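1st attempt posting a full record on here, be nice pls
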Amino acid sequence: MEERNTFTRRELLGTSAIAAGSVMAGGLASGITSPPAAGEQVERIPSGKIGNVTIGRMLLGGNLIGGWLHCRDLKYVGQLFRAYCTEEKILQTIALAEKHGINTVFETGGDFVQRHNRSTGGKMQFIPHIEVDADRSEQALRDHVNAQADTGAVALYVWGVSSDRLVYTGHAAKLVRAVELARETGLPIGVGTHSLTVVKECERLKAPVDFYVKTLHRDDYPSATPRERRKDFMWMTGEGGYYDNMWCIDADETIAFMKQIAKPWIAFKVLAAGAYLPRDGFQYAFANGADFIAVGMFDFQIADNCATLNKALAANARRERRWFG
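the predicted structure (as tokens):
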């Protein structure tokens, strides 16, 4: 077996004491964690590398910045969320995240990252997604890729919805071409997906991918699609009565296949959009091979999530899949 990577205690625990946090419930919290006072020590998370870019082991998911989140059947939650996440609150959240060592916003929110850095002197980074359509001309795709790179991005990745659609409709070659064009920017380039088939196709076609972004979570929560009804790409086809309740239908297969992939893996939907507590979702993701996780967080969740992440990393410093990045 390939030698396993390990973390040092210094890398895992950083230099700070554990900060008091909120009691997590679902994906929301019953308590509020106040922003740290000036000079107050906070628990920081360790970092890894994607290409030559230093990335915190937990990225701030952009969905809470972009203005949407999964809420299953609770139709009022989106309105409640948008009422809470004002522009001021979003900027406060980014600032708090950076203090805890979360140094990268993922997918959406480049404008807010730039505003934060200009107003505070911060160094928050941004990884935006690339949208790829089968009928988009190469020049239009190139222009889109360059526009995303010009947001101040430190890496790029093909949006999972695009990757899924391209592979499902038989246009995997277009996905590979998008990766090749993105590499011309000189930035690390990843491919996101909800389907393991996309990763398999990228590997089969030898796409020059630097990292993968793949869903990973357990499947024993009450609203998960029953195993006998799961079909690949069912979130696109609606087969099996699918609705917006599950994002990783193939966790065991994903875990097994990713052991063969010698590239960094950013896992997302690790809490199954609020179905699991961070202590469960983070532990599962890192124990089963993820190198980084992207997590949408409110400001009052950041302190607890960072403390929880450090515990999960320490518990999995030695694991079956080697650490990348």
